[in-house]
Amino acid sequence: MPGGTASAAATPGTTAPGLPAAERAALKRSLRRAERQKRLGAFLLTLPLLAYLLLLFVIPLGGMVWLSLANPTLSERMPRTVVALRHWPPRSQPRSQPLGQPQQQPNALPPEAAYAAVAADLREDFHTHTFGRIAKRLNEESPGAFGLINKTTFRIAHLPPQSSWKKVLQGIDPAWSELAFWQLLKRESAPVTADFYLAALDLQYGQNGHIERVPAYERIHVLLFLRTAWMSALITLLTLVLGYPLAYWISRMKERRANIVIIAVLLPFWTSLLVRIVAWIVLLQSHGVVNSVLIAAHLASASNPPKLIYNGLGTIIVMTQVLLPFTVLPLYSVMRGIPDSYVRAAVSLGAHPWRAFWKVFAPLSLPGVGAGVLLVFILALGYYITPELVGGQSGQFISNRIAFNVQESLNWGLAAALGTILTGVTLVLFVIYNRIIGIGRLSLG
After folding, report:
1. Structural domain count of the chain
2. H/E run at residue 320
């Protein structure tokens, strides 16, 4: 048609009616630029949060993992010994041996060069005042090594060059004639070690170099892990049993009255945790308020009152009260959004009120249950101050052992390994929760 031909001729190269290709390309570039600016603005808004997570979570967590694996003491302070023991013990015996060269046995002590290297390193560390670090690190793996290293260092510090350092060291202490101690030096010469994880799992290297369990009287970490897990689970169950009815009762109140009760639930958050724990000590001690009431009611003997504190029971009671709000608040926020009409409709259709509650209301409250259970259990796993003050000997958690290694024994590698294992267990539980229930159903309100 003439009109169509004229219109097409007037706009050559167009891909859309009335829009030239050049203008369309410019529009696309403008849209892409606007989209990039929008994404950049969103990223800049989240940058403070990312920096916060990086500085206070990712970097400390990575540092803890590295500290649990790092073993720089011997590689830095005894470099000659590390080189001398690099090819000891021989992994396989060569078929032919040069004449005049002694044949090494796999279970034989290292050669004279290794003894000379130890002497040279310890003499140098004596002048730089760093031999104490070597003694401390070896003593963490083999009790008694601290005294051995110190004694040897002081004895050889001012000796002239010797023709046989092997005889000198073995004369100072018989431990230098033991294959197990040289195996320890060989193992600790690596810059990365799994020793801290083995100790965290109550394992050690045996005389033959294989991994075995430590003696029964030294097995404490696995027991503490198990105790932490089951006591945390029990505390979580108790907070759920106590918190579910309370949250349901509050959620069915009128809003004004419910706000007042919620303030009462939140009131412990405005009180120092230490003050609350001291209050519980006053209540639960042998001649405290609770035992006085039980004795007055003839429910307990005055000569042998119940032990309600400084044991596992005290830890459970106090931590249940402390962590109860963390269960009530997610439950209340979910239950508040469930209309009463759902249960009334089920009852009107012939269901018993209890059946209507468990079939209609309870499933709808599961996101709050999941949030409360997950939150309380994770918090309980890492609790420290409450078991420390009211747990006594039988109510200690693994966190108390971590604090002991950091503050008293100064075995930071073992503390980092314990913390890494605890973090890993928490992540595994989180993944299991996601697989079974689904993280999408979790609701904090």
Report:
1. 3
2. helix 312-335
